[in-house]
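Lab notebook, bench 4. Still working through the backlog of constructs that have no structural model yet. Next entry is a single chain of 939 residues. Request: give me the structure tokens for it.
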Amino acid sequence: MSARLKPTRLEYVVDGVKLRSQLSAAALENLGDEAAQRKAALDVLKAALFRGRMIAKERLENGAGGIETARLLSGVTDEVVCALYDFTTVHIFRARNPTEGERLALMAVGGYGRGTLAPYSDLDLLFLRPYKQTAHAESVIEYMLYALWDLGFKVGHASRTIEECIKLSREDYTIRTSILEARRLTGDEMLADELIKRFRGEVVKGTGAEFVAAKLKERDERHARAGASRYMVEPNVKEGKGGLRDLNTLFWIAQYLHPGETLERVMQLEMFDRREIRSFIVAFDFLWATRCQLHFATGRPEERLSFDLQPEIARRMGYGDRGDAPAVERFMRRYFLIAKDVGALTRVFAAKLEADRVKIAPKGISRFIPGRSVKRKPLAEPGFHEIGGRLDVDADIFEGDPVNLLRLFRIADQRNLDLHPDAFTAASRSMNLITSAVRRDRHAAKVFLDILARGRDPRTTLTLMTEAGVLGRYLPEFGRIVAQMQFNMYHSYTVDEHTLRAVGVIADIAAGRLPDDHPLATQIMPLIADREALFLAMLLHDTGKGGAGGQEVAGARAARQACERLGLERSKIELVAWLVEHHLVMSDYAQKRDVSDPRTVADFARIVQSPERLRLLLVLTVADIRAVGPGVWNGWKGQLLRELYSATEAVFRGGRGSDAAAALRRYQENAAYDARVRLAKADAGAEPWGDAMEDAYFTAFTDDEVLTHARLALAASGGPGSAAEGRVRRDLNVSEVVVAAADRPRLFVDLAEAITGAGANVVGARVFTSRGGQALDVFYVQDVTGAPFGASDERALGRLAKALACAARGEPVVRERRRQDLGRAAAFAITPAVMLDNEASELSTVVEASGRDRPGLLAGLARTLSDAGLLITSAHIDGYGERAVDCFYVVDADGEKLTDARKGNALKAALLATLNDSEADSTGGRRGNLQRARASVAR
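Model written out:
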């Protein structure tokens, strides 16, 4: 980080006296030519404004603070606006003998009134007049507004009398807040002073409680709009939870409750201790620096730290790579720790309000009414009491027994009580009492496990513990991932927030609240013998991120350390560590491998080893995927996991000593025989087709689906040579398109290109070929929003089916290579990778290609495989934000695996070239010269 610069004096940046003399000279030199006067004046003001902004920018880049920068920009703007006012009222519309009605005061209100301004912030101005609008005042205001707009300002303005200001501020809290921060810039001083005096006496006095309630309701609504979590990985610096607006809300309330006091004075009213005052200043300064850098980097009032801007802002803020931690992730972790501090400061502030009897609080700090006496109700647990519907503590309870820091949260959970702000503040200030001895205390472990595995609402309770700093202090392995961010588009939340949400998903499954979304997990949850191990594994599953040896190995190591400290028995420690180390295995096998291949299930069963582990891993995987972010979990992924679970469960039913692959083959043979019999009974004409299809086909589809496929295949062979039909599968969140045609080289390629041409994305594909040489390809597709393709337009799905039928017959497919603007995704530097595996399947070579996701990638990879003389027997498509992972099962023209090393290396090179094409495309849609950073591959 750059060394801190000392603040500079405003006159060194913009000399107000010199500026006014330049404006006077411009007016006199162009006397009689109003247009020339205006142009000359604007040139002078633009030069002053540009100089001021450039000095502020340079100082910020060289270590100046965020608050200093915001005040400097506000000071520069003050000088420009006041000089423009003087120019307008002296040289353009001078009132030599102004009447009472022509008095005018110019006031800064809103954010500008606070004396802090971002480079491209709106300018909020109030033109205050004593009576109704006069021609003179109207001319001055109009001239100034047009000049300010020409200077590039976005001006929010109002022209009102004092009476209008008082009346409107009583009716509208937004106006009331803007006038609360009003300060005079120039003009009639008595007029401005009268407004402030009357506002405090007629609006503010006696209305503190209602103002607090209104501001906090407004805050809650703002959080809901911007994203309720302060740990969303693309935060809004101004409006988001934990952002500048939250700190401003504290300012407004403090100013309103203590009118006339400076902010520095308000903060000394026994509200904050020394450490919290420092946190307040540091947070405010960091957020302002970040916001100013955002504005300077984009040249506009950008408030959101989107992915494409994060690396650039990290660079401008002085962050560099450190070991395996890239600069962008270090910067963003700092941002989220600041946001966490803002949340804690808000609670401390609420405690002060409680002490002043401004509010009652059955629901946090969101309900305020005038104070009244509140009864104190002692609880059975010594040292704890209930007050106003919330849990509070006696003085020195934590010093007497630090385990009470954990008991506080267990009691709140058991009794369904919110924490009193005083209790939360006391816990936060006492977290250092949790020492290594407390971490190894068996009573503390019992309390903690009660919260985690047997709590009423573990997610909410653990979130409160994290906000107070208690959870990270008690469980250092978790503390290391608090506020940690992964620089990719797959995760919507920080690592700790994702983890706590995943714990909440397991709790919801256990309580039976998600039977429709997760029927299998809900069904098997009662069969799980060790829920404690499940919840511990979920809480610790990502603690290895950034650790030595890789995420899974480092996570297992961290899990063992944590569980040993908790005093668990050895078998449970090893189970938790195994779950953490293998928490990605089930999703990898389900989404990247062919579950109908006996080797896939045999290998997976060999890793899992027991039905209990299978059940634990299924629930863990479901919760992990669902907690990644909105829209990541869908019915298609659920179906893949259920298929893998059922196939593996069938292997375990065959007995421990059985050959898993052989057991699955016997299962497929028996299922296929029964399905063929049923198909023949349903439609005798379909019997030959059924006999020619491979056994694995029948385990993948229901009887009704098999009958539909058979009739489609018969229609294709008896007519034009191909047929296709589609249907929306809302249960899987995909549309299913089935294509029947004579098999031929490049068939899959042509079909994939047709799908791309229709604007659909393939999320899965199943490829079957009968012994008679007829192909049956089943594609699962979505639109660009992640919804089933054609769900809102049935004709689009019909057109896609028609296009696929034509492509299957070999008719030309329209290929349109379009250079795309990747927007936010362009910030990620992605290293393509290709892997060939001859051990994952008995009959095929598995090709796994990973690189930047883009429309047409599947078709491009399939074309490369086809050009190499390979036939695709199965395709599995997975995506992790900006990165796609496409897996293909392939054989050569003789139906054999690709075993020639030279051909394998040539194939790798060709596939990497295809993947690099999409990476090269990513540079075309980038804005300006913004910094890039490598995308995190951690999941």
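Notes after review: DSSP finds 40 helices and 18 strands in the chain. Residues 683 and 707 are 8 Å apart (CA to CA). Flag for follow-up if needed.
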